[in-house]
Structure formats: structure tokens, C-alpha cells
Structure of Ribonuclease P protein component:
Amino acid sequence: MLAAAQRLRRRDEFTTAVRGGRRAGRGAVVVHLTLPASPDLDQPASAAPSARAGFVVSKAVGGAVVRNQVKRRLRHLSRERLAALPAGSTLVVRALPQAADRSYQRLGVDLDKAIAAARGV
């Protein structure tokens, strides 16, 4: 489970991340990643906002049970990867219909590849 400070909840937060971030799709996921402009050296590291994530799983993925299962998997996978992103980053993960049939490990590989592509690594 993600902490409340690490979750995107409002529509404008999602819109800002999707429109202003880099997009990369790999396998069954598409990620929109917004990196902070530059680190503020005057601000202590503890005051810097943590990386945040949000998830979009449409009805095209499946029924409510399948959508929630995919969302839980992506949430858990993202929690592990948020620590590697710079503080202040925003990550939106959109599940494609193929995500319903992917295993947990394969979703993790797709997510890793998509994040690496969005970061330009």
C-alpha cells in the first residue's frame, strides 16, 4: 500500500502529470513521468516532497474484480520503484487491456522498462 503522501488523488494532479510529463509504453503499461525541474539546494532533504504515483485502469481492462486486481498489483510494484525516483517526481501508470492477463513478474518487467524509457535511461 502506498502512503497517503505518495498517492495522486485529484483530477488536476493526474492532468498535470499526463500533459507535462514524458510518456513511455512498454508491454501492458504506459507511464507518464514528470521529473522535478531542479533540486532546491536551499531546502533540506527532509522537506522535499516524496515521489508520488497514480493509476488509471479503465473498463477496457476488465470487470471490477479484474481492474482492482490489476490496480493492486501495479500499486505494489510502484511502491518498490518510487524510492528510485527523484523527490518531487510524479508517476502515472495506465494499464492497457493486456495487463489483465499478465503475471505479477511480467507486469514488473513492463513497468521497469517503461519507467527507464520515460527517464531516458
